[in-house]
Amino acid sequence: MPRELRPLPWIVVGLTVAAILLDLVNGRFWASDFRVYWSAARGLLEHGPVYGVAFGENTGFYKYAPVVAMGFVPAALLPYSLAAVLHVLLSGLLLIPILFTLERILMRHILGMHAPRMLLRQVLVLMCCAVLIARELHLGNVNLWLVLGVVVATEALLDGSDGLAGVLFGALWLLKPYLAFMAIPLVVGGHWRPLQRAALTVALALVLPLPFLGPQRWFELHREWLGAMATHSSYLTSPDTFQSMLGAVVRERTLVHPGLIIAVAALLLAGYGWYQLRSTRVQERSLVLPLWLAFAAVPHLVVTDQEHFLYSLPLIAFVLARAFMQGAIPSTWLFVSAMALYATRSSDLWGGAVEAQLVAAGALGLGNLLLMVTALWSAKAERHP
């Protein structure tokens, strides 16, 4: 661990504990998303319902694979309150390996040198994501686990550990199937081994519950899982998707069909990945930014909640590192403008009325889109390492 970063774990611990204590003191420790995972795991243990039941909130339907519920069985053996506190605490502490792994990737593979002000940059990453991190911990979701999986898989690819990268991608895509959008840069770059390992991981994980559940219950639960995924967006809305953002300016709704938007986004990502592959001398390095852009774009393509925009955390770390090294004024101001929208959507900051206006305007989505543009701008020098 670099000496400059030694205070970072203590900063993360302090912020995580403070967030939990504030929620407990204010009676806002809901962990409603974790209740869904915990309740689904209890359903497996007690042969009760897993799908089609709202656990807690009226939108609290479990919509993940049965094997994911099996992963929460150890938590389901504990009383809910204790399990929730432990889950939220552990989720917050994941920021430590996330930030350290990102710093290693930037230093060893992307920037090719020691980037200045390591601690300051990591604290700025935390500040930019503070509102989303607080909401993530408040709800007890698993998005920080996904961010950790993506950055570790990225480092594994860069280090030549295709098998480990494939296993991690497979686990990520099984947990959140829409993250398979990240397969596009792998296909464009010809990274077939991690793709094969990911497919094998998914297949084995789907079969894993069979001996524990029995054939009939295994089949029923997987059929219900597919139905839950198919109806996921029917009871949710988001002003931050590309469909909503385009729909606000285009009256002809057929032009903003979600399938068409995903297809166009896939083509643009594939085109950029192809361009990076041919303009960057180090093939593995050319993969990183397309992967992280694909990760950041996911909340624009499917209807999700606010905290899913934590998927842009690696991009924020990348842009900040570039800004401190290059000192480029245009990209710095572009980044500041992006964060003014991305990092500030909170009723705790502005009150409910102002937050409602920010939500209606799709401010978070606009900020995230501007962040992706900033990352592309900052990467221009990447073609000449």
Element-by-element helix/strand order: HHHHHHHHHHHHHHHHHHHHHH
In helices, the fraction of residues equals: over 70%
* Annotation field: number of helices: 22
Structural class from helices and strands? mainly alpha
Unreliable sequence segments:
none
**How many strands?**
0
Give the biggest sheet.
none
Average of pLDDT: 89
What is the count of distinct domains?
Answer: 1
**What is the radius of gyration?**
21 Å
Q: How much beta, percentage-wise?
A: under 5%
State the separation between the terminal residues, measured CA to CA: 25 Å
Question: What spatial form do the alpha-carbon principal axes imply?
Answer: globular
Describe the protein's topology.
Layout: H1 8-25, H2 32-46, H3 66-71, H4 73-76, H5 80-93, H6 95-110, H7 118-128, H8 130-139, H9 143-158, H10 162-175, H11 183-188, H12 192-207, H13 210-213, H14 215-230, H15 242-247, H16 258-279, H17 283-301, H18 313-326, H19 329-342, H20 347-350, H21 352-361, H22 363-378
Describe the structure.
- By secondary structure, the protein is mainly alpha-helical.
- It has one domain (about 5-385).
- The chain has helices spanning about 10-25, 30-45, 65-70, 75, 80-95, 95-110, 120-130, 130-140, 145-160, 160-175, 185-190, 190-205, 210-215, 215-230, 240-245, 260-280, 285-300, 315-325, 330-340, 345-350, 350-360, 365-380.
- It is globular and about 60 Å long.
